[in-house]
Design brief:
By secondary structure, the chain is α/β, with parallel strands linked by helices. It has twelve helices and 27 strands.
């Protein structure tokens, strides 16, 4: 969208940081010695690893040749409801029976309530290392089970089952913690809908003053959209603020602010798109003029590659980065420095430091969905060594496609199907070339209810074709901007567009999946894994669904005795047509 920010600089908020991991209980005071073991015993012993970070005087020692179970009672804080949580994180120390080095310890995690309802485990782990090496083992509880359990309908204590090898024992050191919702496993095939959370790219003055010219969205913004089910957050920021000089280090202050926001989203299980919102330009004079990449030796593809190499190094450790959006809406690129060539240089640089996180490539000419084939068809020839590219288009409904909405609904000749008609050019391209896509911006004014019909028809089309999207826009600095879906009255009053947006939170699968109507019988499906490569076979032609830990549909694939399906999955826990698999 061709946006003007200078008039928005009067609207600002103070960002508030918060640690949203809540310590509920520690084992010494809360567990009360509960626990039992098969082929072994449970007892309280002096903490052999006591130090400043692990001050408990006593810890539970579980010795077992088979399985050990230890109960985990906890209570809900007064200001929280069961729906706020669906997870437990524990810290474990693993030693062998004689306190000697660990060659490896295999841990199969699972939780089970008193009526036998299985809950979802996270990744299993093992450890190669020395005595007293710390391990962190995470698992998640199904939301409906946790809700009824906390409501008192299940009277037994919840149990963590840890399988330990012969003659090994487990020290459970302190700290049961509930975490906000499900931790996101970084996998861009999870097709959420969401919003842009603006503010960090505002102002038109660079670097500017935080709180005056620009400002970061807060955890309150995340909480609001989380409750609406709009989990995917596109997070715009400016190159001029995060890197003040070409090839220089990232600005430590801005980097810390970005990380605070990303961490808050990770705590809430919300995937983040890091969006460099610069239109393939950089201002060297504080925002008065903007130099185009390739226009001179002062700004080249290699400079963009440098900043993204450094950003990827800083953010690759987060579990909730949905993708690196390397440049928002490039346009009017020079023949001597086409967007295709620039994007390829950036892809290569990111893969030097991060081979897993998806890379999002916006289309040329303001990323127009309607004109995708005319301006961006060649992007299908980009090469990613990790084969993990996502292509991004933008779409607005006004007559000039700009998103400024200078005219009325009637004057712009809009119909209920305008969005679908414009999106079809992009979606058909994705299907034709078996590519993954994102509609990163779309938005409508709040001054005519007919815009909402056009918006809803677009979302239905995206949902049914497996293309996720992020609405433009939200964030605490928009004021009365007519496209904004930022709530008013201290987050209690929705904007009109929200009545449509909250109805569409996930898509129906992948754009590149071959779908048929025949479901697989569970016993007919065979699943095998080598690393993150998964092979699905079936004794009959049918459709296999792949679900992730968050309960979202990753993809659907068609299989037959003659044609198995080959999938590459990110690390995490999956259900492949009810077959549980773990990608480590």
């Amino acid at each position: 969208m061709r946006k003007l920010f200078t008039v928005l600089s009067l609207f600002f908020v103070v960002a508030v940081g918060a640690n949203n991991t809540l310590l509920i209980n520690d084992f010494e005071s809360g567990l009360n010695g509960a626990g039992n073991a098969w082929g072994g015993s449970c007892e309280w012993v002096d903490n052999p690893l006591v130090d400043a970070s692990n001050p408990s005087s006593k810890v539970l020692k579980v010795t077992s040749t088979e399985f050990a179970a230890t109960a985990i009672p906890f209570t809900l804080p007064d200001d929280k409801t069961p729906m706020d949580y669906m997870g437990v994180r524990l810290q474990l120390a693993i030693l062998d029976a004689c306190g000697e080095n660990i060659n490896w310890v295999g841990c199969d995690l699972g939780v089970q309530d008193n009526v036998g309802n299985k809950c979802w485990p996270a990744t299993a782990s093992w450890q190669t290392g020395v005595s007293n090496t710390w391990m962190t083992l995470d698992f998640w509880i199904d939301e409906s089970i946790l809700s009824t359990w906390l409501a008192g309908e299940h009277t037994d204590e919840l149990s963590l089952l840890v399988k330990v090898g012969r003659q090994k024992f487990v020290y459970v050191i302190d700290n049961v913690a509930l975490i906000e919702k499900t931790e996101y496993i970084g996998d861009a095939t999870q097709n959420y809908f969401g919003v842009n959370l603006s503010g960090a790219e505002f102002g038109g003055i660079y670097p500017g003053i935080d709180g005056t010219h620009y400002g970061y969205p807060t955890y309150k913004d995340l909480d609001y959209f989380k409750k609406k089910g709009l989990n995917l957050i596109r997070f715009p920021f400016r190159w001029e603020r995060i890197q003040r000089t070409m090839n220089g280090e990232l600005d430590a202050t801005e980097l810390a602010k970005m990380k605070t926001f990303v961490q808050a989203a990770e705590d809430r299980g919300m995937p983040i798109i890091l969006d460099m919102h610069n239109f393939a330009r950089y201002s060297f004079d504080g925002g008065t003029t903007h130099l185009l990449i390739g226009e001179s030796s002062a700004l080249t593809a290699e400079h963009l590659a440098d900043v993204w190499r450094k950003l990827a190094q800083e953010f690759k450790g987060y579990t909730n980065i949905w993708g690196y959006d390397i440049m928002n809406e490039p346009y009017s690129m020079l023949p001597s420095a086409p967007w295709f060539d620039i994007a390829q240089v950036v892809i290569d640089a990111i893969r030097e430091v991060d081979t897993e996180t998806p890379i999002i490539v916006s289309g040329d000419s303001f990323s127009s969905a309607r004109f995708w084939v005319e301006y961006s068809d060649n992007l299908r020839n980009l090469i990613d060594p990790s084969d993990n590219l996502i292509f991004q288009a933008h779409l607005y409904f006004d007559k000039d496609y700009s998103g400024q909405y200078l005219n009325s609904y009637d004057a712009d000749g809009v119909t209920p199907d305008t969005g679908v008609e414009r999106a079809k050019y992009f979606v058909d391209w994705l299907k034709r070339y078996n590519k993954r896509g994102l509609l990163g911006e779309y938005g409508v004014p709040d001054d005519d209810s007919r815009w909402l019909v056009t918006l809803e028809n677009l979302l239905i089309y995206l949902r049914d074709n497996g293309v996720p999207g992020t609405y433009w826009s939200a964030g605490p600095r928009w004021g009365d901007y007519k496209l904004a879906v930022q709530p008013t009255n201290n987050y209690t009053v929705d904007r009109p567009q929200m009545a449509v947006l909250e109805k569409y939170t996930v898509t129906n699968g992948s754009t590149s999946s071959a779908i048929n109507d025949t479901k697989c019988v569970e016993n007919d499906v065979q699943v095998s894994c080598i690393g993150n490569e998964v092979v699905v076979r079936s004794d009959m032609p049918c459709e296999v669904s792949v679900w992730n830990l968050s309960g979202m549909l990753v993809c659907k694939v068609s299989v037959s005795p003659e044609s198995p399906a080959y999938l590459t999955l990110q690390k995490g826990f999956y259900l492949v047509d009810k077959k549980k698999i773990i990608i480590k």
